Amino acid sequence: LLGGKPLENGDWDFENAAQLLLFCNGPWCGQSPRAISNLLEVGYPAERLYYYRGGMQSWVSLCLSVLVPG
Predict the structure, then answer these.
(1) 11 Cβ contact partners less than 8 Å away, ≥ 6 residues apart
(2) CB–CB of 25/55 below 8 Å?
(3) Gap between the Cα atoms of 48 and 53, Å rounded
(4) β pairing state of 5-6 and 12-13
(5) 49 by DSSP, 3-state: which?
(6) How far apart are CA 15 and CA 12, in angstroms?
(7) C-alpha to C-alpha distances, 56 to 25, 28, 35, 52, 60, nearest whole angstrom
(8) For residue 6, what are the β-bridge partners?
């Protein structure tokens, strides 16, 4: 699991945990907050988690670049 390995006692060793970016659909979406909560609950290091909640609507409202596949 993202650089973690299971230990014999059922816990996880996250010594080599990957940096993880969660990009949420928007302020109404609860998927990323739930995922973050679950990761923290099993011991994933908080300093390896990065979170953007705004979604594409916030990105566009800030006039940031967007490429529309064509």
Answers:
(1) 42, 43
(2) yes
(3) 16
(4) antiparallel
(5) strand
(6) 9
(7) 7, 12, 19, 10, 6
(8) 12
